[in-house]
Amino acid sequence: MKITDPAIEVFILIGALSFIPSILVMFTSFTRIVVVMSILRQALGSPNLPPNSVIIGLSLFLTFYIMGPTIDRVTAGAIMPYIKKEIAIDEALKKAEPDIKAFMLRQTREKDLALFVRLSRERVPSRPEELPVRVVVPAFVISELSTAFKIGFLIYLPFLVIDMIVSSILLSMGMMMLPPVLVSMPFKLLLFVMVDGWNLMAASLVRSFQ
């Protein structure tokens, strides 16, 4: 049954707007990026620098960059035909689903998909593309968190080494009252700047989705 009543369409669109934050987090690359950025901030020893607004803003624009091809396909195949009144809203949603699902499936581990297929007691389809969205989305989010934690671990290691070296030096000098983080933070910032950390971070995050 097609949704053709304008009042119903407006109601659905207004309802969809309230889910935009959830859609951004659950259906895109935003989760991996913001988690990695947060881990980097902790590794640098500066819980408030960069501030949350900068972390979220950078994560948002990197998300739009990574999702660009998918957004273009969804716009051309679903959004523009709907705006031009060529298709109804329910048909637009059906046309948008394969492109979004294809992006998520490329980033989702098979073991996570298998877990939610088993939990949902769905029939195992011949192709992953035939899985329902309610199975793909949680599997995708878990995979994104796992990948983000792996990247975060690799980022944390060199900064942890600096912390250990500084702590050992301060302990050997008898400066036990001086917080090691206070001394190690400038060295960690220096290391990050010398290796052009933000450039490497952005490039690594983008490549991790390719």
Model description:
This protein is an all-alpha fold and 210 residues long. It has a domain at 6-151. The protein is 78% helix and 0% strand. It has helices at residues 6-18, 20-27, 30-44, 52-66, 68-83, 89-107, 110-120, 133-172, 180-194, 197-207. The model has no long low-confidence stretch (mean pLDDT 80).
Quick summary of this structure?
The protein has helices at about 5-20, 20-25, 30-45, 50-65, 70-85, 90-105, 110-120, 135-170, 180-195, 195-205. The chain is mostly helical and about 210 residues long. The protein starts with 5 loop residues before the first helix and ends with a helix.
Secondary structure: elements and pairs:
Elements: H1 6-18, H2 20-27, H3 30-44, H4 52-66, H5 68-83, H6 89-107, H7 110-120, H8 133-172, H9 180-194, H10 197-207
Helix pairs in contact: 3-4, 3-8, 4-5, 5-6, 6-8, 7-8, 8-9
Number of helices: 10
Strands, count:
0
Distance N to C terminus:
38 Å
Sheet of most strands:
none
Structural class, judged by helices and strands?
mainly alpha
- Give the low-pLDDT segments: none
Shape estimate: elongated
Strand proportion, as a percent range, falls in under 5%
pLDDT average, as an integer?
80
Helical percentage? over 70%
Rg, nearest Å = 22 Å
Order of helices and strands: HHHHHHHHHH
Keyphrases for this structure?
210 residues; mainly alpha; 10 helices; 0% strand; elongated
